[in-house]
Specification:
homodimer; mainly alpha; Arc Repressor Mutant, subunit A; two-stranded antiparallel ribbon; 7 helices; 2 strands; elongated; DNA-binding
Chain lengths: 163, 163
DNA sequence: ATATCCTGGATATTTGCAATCCATGATTTT
DNA sequence: AAAATCATGGATTGCAAATATCCAGGATAT
């Protein structure tokens, strides 16, 4: 069981987009360069975030990405859902309905308790992720950030911001 | 993100092994046949469960598998860990340390808040799974089982039990 | 001795993720 | 109008892990 790298990329990008001035955007190229990751692959995930209504994209020169709503209203779960999909990690194959002791399908209308247990655990996972917003992350990042890192980031952003 | 099918197989097998009489065992072939799944692949997972101390295996004729301890003392989490491994689903690649705004590694001694958030969610997932035992699952299965299914299973087990 | 069963390794096969490339369309600048 | 910049979406490739099978070797009961 493994989350795709795109989740980490998406959350980091959202956190960076949360600190740029209102009215400005960052192109995908800049987001990839800032994080030292593949540009062509990152934009795939940025597209997913845009389709999910988490980001807004502007085409053309002076184009790029920005958050679609305040960082405090974007949960980490929303980003994970957009990139990983909403399928549960556990996919019940209903093997209880197979084999020599199986009966007709109508008998199995009640959900398998094993499936229910796994889904309950995923609900707990989702609840935890839903309790964290991008704004929370930015706060955490800022609190433990070295002052030089902040300045270095701001200086770098200066030449990439659009709008 | 997807859990391997082996998890479902392992939990179902543990549930079945929880209801066979004390002192008896079931061979891997019977466990695979009962669930209508691949025998050669299932035994791989049964080996993992044995190595984890969840099952005990007996070689030779009259051999097979049985639970290593009471079903009430085997959590679903233990089975998941044995089959999926204990690696977290989120693997922080520390991309905050990459790119043009990065500083020397010593600056990043404190854990990344994004990583912390993801790990906290996995803790909630694990806590939920740790709260469920195989005995709980058997209880749930029995309560909603059709009486004919129980009889059919018992009759089928009659000819496969060893010991 | 023989038959049965677990063990562990070697080996395909398949799936999904990671990554790249390109043609297209939108928008700003010149 | 032309050129440059950027997002979009599809096609394709490479790769690692999960899935699945097979077989030789060791243990045990009949």
């Amino acid at each position: 069981m493994k989350l795709s790298d795109g989740v980490e990329w998406g959350v980091h990008c959202a956190a960076l987009l949360a600190v740029i001035p209102a009215g400005t955007v960052l192109p995908g190229k800049a987001l990839a360069e800032y994080h030292g990751i593949s540009e062509s692959y990152l934009v795939k995930h940025l597209q997913a975030l845009t389709a999910a209504g988490i980001l807004i994209s502007i085409p053309g020169p002076k184009g790029g990405y920005r958050l679609a709503r305040p960082a405090a209203e974007i949960t980490v779960l929303a980003i994970v859902d957009a990139i990983e999909g909403r399928d549960s990690a556990f996919r019940c194959a209903e093997i209880r309905q197979r084999g020599p002791a199986a009966l007709e399908p109508a008998v199995y209308r009640l959900p398998c308790p094993i499936n229910a247990t796994m889904l309950r655990a995923e609900m707990a996972w989702r609840k935890s992720l839903r309790a964290q917003t991008v704004a929370d992350l930015v706060g955490g990042l800022a609190k433990r950030a070295d002052q030089r890192a902040v300045e270095k980031t701001l200086a770098w952003l200066q030449e990439r911001l659009r709008g």
